[in-house]
Design brief:
The complex is a heterodimer of chains A (282) and B (229). Chain A is an all-alpha fold. Chain A contains 13 helices and no strands. In chain B, helix 3 runs parallel beside helix 5. Chain B is globular, with a radius of gyration of 17 Å. Classes of the chains: A mainly alpha (282), B alpha/beta (229).
């Protein structure tokens, strides 16, 4: 009963958590690449058009859509290779706007009216199964050479090259991974929401994904998931505040930045490292 | 394999930071590189490791030409370095910093990592300690451990004794000789002339981007041009 009432929120949390993981992969490599909403939109439209317009089975359309968003991620890494920090952020936001505007103007996407009639072929277990699978993969590779290469590229790109790491390849692989993960979210979103519009993948969505990671902890996958959960639930829990509930989200974000700049993950880590006696005395 | 710099020229704007410098490092030898600030010592390391492009000349490792290759490719060919201003991966722990040095190889075993740390004088170090929180001397040693983890052919140490006390410097001298004894060619940039005389087989003196003198430590100590400079 409770699940039936809140299943849309539960689905949203799962999809937002997957998107947060996608950005977390980029942030782990020090890449403030804000194209997750665009990757999500690309995979969402590709899979939905393949199924609705061309009659493909979802079992074929979904992997093709994720492959497309992965390829787009890898290709996007090439022109932005020399960009860092805020410049990379702006360039990738610009890419997201291009994707959105193309979606608005191409008849095949349904333009501003959106793409309707997407069959509800996926449901909550698919969302959380995908989230678990992605989480398990990220957990399994957390001590891999690729994860280390990402971390040292983030820390000091020149020194990383000095130990033999091709940082350009790391950046390409990172954006490709981000494209793949966000692509999964796009397919799940399309086939659990029945219709797609370009505004589903606009800058506002990207802004939310960034907030999830900041709240959770920028380089912690688990933190990103927690951040997505908290920031998805908050507006619903405080629905009685009506238009002011977004203010609450802003206050939470400010509080985290000021009092726990490392996010939930860093705060939890600090508590765990604190000796029991100190916690007891605190 | 020997490392050879042949008439290397590096220009920054209109200024020759290196003006036709030649240098050779044989396997198992320690070559000292000394000179006043701004002489071009670090630029020579940067030129070798691909971070400063050459305007002329070439850099050879054995029969392989290195200049023109990207820094990561030069590192993979067997050139490891430390930095004048320490460049550890500060937010990572000791273990990950050493692992980073060996990232191109299979993962270091725990025993190999402990052996490396012991070799640089960090036996018993907390592997989980964040690199940026280490004492200055330990940061220098960890940077050397990271470089050694790559099993380099040539090791370039840029002022490794900076900030070390006399006993730490003595330990560093022993370490540098032990590294060379393993067949690794070492380039040692250092202002501590006592350390240079103690560990180097040959010394090159740079001044204004040119080689002022080259010879054994004793020859350099009595070279009139060096004394005058």
């Amino acid at each position: 009963m409770l699940f039936t009432r809140y299943h849309t929120l539960v689905d949203q949390i799962g999809i937002n958590a997957i998107l947060a993981l996608s950005l977390s992969v980029c942030l782990r490599a020090g890449q403030l690449a804000l194209a997750q909403a665009a990757f999500m939109g690309i995979a969402g439209y590709v899979s939905a058009i393949a199924v609705v317009t061309f009659g493909w089975p979802l079992v074929l359309a979904a992997p093709v859509a994720v492959a497309v968003s992965t390829l787009v991620g890898a290709l996007l890494a090439l022109p932005v290779e020399r960009l860092r920090g805020v410049y990379l952020a702006i360039a990738t936001i610009g890419f997201g706007e291009i994707v959105r505007i193309v979606a608005y103007n191409e008849p095949i996407t349904g333009g501003g009216d959106g793409l309707n009639g997407i069959p509800p072929l996926l449901s909550t277990p698919w969302i959380y199964g995908t989230l678990l699978a992605i989480g398990a993969i990220l957990y399994a590779v957390r001590n891999s050479r690729f994860a280390l290469a990402q971390a040292i590229t983030r820390e000091d790109e020149a020194a990383a090259a000095g130990v033999g790491v091709d940082t350009g390849r790391v950046r390409i692989a990172t954006l490709a991974c981000a494209g793949a993960i966000a692509g999964c979210a796009g397919v799940l979103y399309a086939f659990t929401n029945f219709f797609l519009t370009p505004s589903d993948f606009a800058f506002g969505r990207m802004e939310q994904i960034l907030v999830y990671c900041v709240i959770g902890g920028v380089t912690s996958p688990l933190g990103a998931v927690l951040g997505a959960a908290v920031m998805s639930i908050l507006p619903e829990a405080f629905r009685f505040l009506q238009d002011f509930r977004d203010v609450l989200s802003g206050v939470v974000l400010l509080a985290v930045i000021v009092f726990a700049p490392g996010g939930i993950a860093a705060a939890w880590s600090a508590v765990r490292k604190k000796p029991a006696a100190q916690i007891g005395n605190a | 394999m020997a490392l050879s710099l042949e008439s290397v020229r590096v220009r920054f704007g209109g200024v020759d930071a290196l003006a036709g410098v030649s240098l050779r490092i044989e396997p198992g030898s320690v070559v000292g590189l000394i000179g006043p600030n701004g002489a071009g010592k670090t630029t020579l390391v940067n030129a070798t490791t691909g971070t400063a492009p050459l305007a002329a000349g070439r850099v050879m490792l054995g029969d392989t030409r290195l200049d023109g290759k990207p820094p990561f490719a030069i590192a993979r060919s067997g050139i490891a370095r430390t930095y004048q201003n320490i460049r550890l991966f500060g937010a990572l722990d000791v273990e990950d910093n050493v692992r980073a040095g060996a990232i191109r190889k299979r993962d270091l075993t725990s025993a190999a990592m402990q052996a490396l740390l012991k070799r640089v004088g960090m036996q018993g170090a907390d592997l989980g300690a964040t690199a940026s929180t280490l004492a200055y001397g330990d940061q220098r040693r960890l940077e050397i451990a990271r470089a050694l983890a790559a099993s380099p052919t040539i090791l370039m140490l840029d002022e490794p004794a900076a900030g070390m006390n006399p006993s730490e410097t003595q330990a560093l001298a022993t370490l540098v000789r032990a590294i060379a004894a393993d067949g690794i060619g070492v380039l040692l940039i250092e202002h501590d002339v006592g350390l240079v005389r103690k560990v180097c087989d040959r010394v090159t003196v740079l001044n204004f981007g040119t080689v002022l003198a080259e010879g054994t430590p004793d020859e350099i100590a009595h070279d009139p041009a060096v004394i005058e400079a």
